Description:
The chain has ten helices and 19 strands. By secondary structure, the chain is α/β, with parallel strands linked by helices.
Amino acid sequence: MRALTVIPLQxxxxxxxxxxEPVQGDGELLVDGLAVGVCGTDxxxxxxxxxxxxxxxxxxxxxxxxxxxxRSAPTGSGFTAGDLVVGVVRRPDPVPCGACAHGQFDMCRNxxxxxxxxxxxxxxxxxxxxxxxxxxxxxxxxxxxxxxxxEPTSVVAKAWAEVEAVGSRAWFEPKTAxxxxxxxxxxxxxxxxxxxxxxxxxxxxxxxxxxPQLVRDLGATYHSEDVDTVAGKLHxxxxxxATGVGSVVLAAMANTAPYGIVCLTGVSSPGHKISVDIGSxxxxxxxxxxxxxGSVNANLGHYTAAAHALAKxxxxxxxxxxxxxxxxxxxxxxxxxxxxxxxxxIALGGSPS
Length: 353
């Protein structure tokens, strides 16, 4: 079979290669791959920034935003042939730490977790893959064209869960949410904010292309002004930060309502320095009981929440998030950004219907 692979830490090694078809093990689903989404993590691995191949393998099959159709399932597994399925990315560490022992492998304390397509486990960018029954999540059948959005939706489902967990330490009835960044994570965060009935505002620097209308079609407001102006006017109760840009992060932190919660989901590039009055920032956070939290990855509960969120979302809106589909044989094209890209997907060859 064909799969998209890299030699970890070697730039320019991205290639569609022949690999052995996996053998279905006990307690596993055998899955025909339909598609994988491409995100910043995949691009960083392709650049050679990081990535770890499984033991005994020189190459790593990448791809963690999966979508497949079950070919074969164990009796009594809850899956049947033809089901749409997504594979969870992370696996708990083998020790395990306390968090992993409680099913919270997204909060692993010792770093010994593994991840499909990233760290020591092959990913899902192959024509056939297997996944343990306990790490497969069934999708609503009508999501056959967009189910690869499940993994990024699980990330924002966790972000919203973290915000709500922090908020619940006191009276908390947020009205306004600001999402900084209108990439896939930002737009999906806006979707989940709209589903919560919040007054959602999305900030991004682009003024044309599909993003502004995608935001408006959620009933949300799109902004392209500087972040200090927007956040300064809104004083949002909640900020989901999805850019990783230092100046945006700081402005979001400085302009929330009292008891504001800022959840950071964007990963900043190192080496960019900005000057900040940390004393003033600390004073505002303390005196207003503000909270800044970081959030990454997702556990099984977040995947389940994401599946519910996608199932009740407008399918036409979700379809418009996928702005480009690239066949597996031209997978490298998916790693070059287009002007109007939101989510780029690699089609693996299986039939969505």
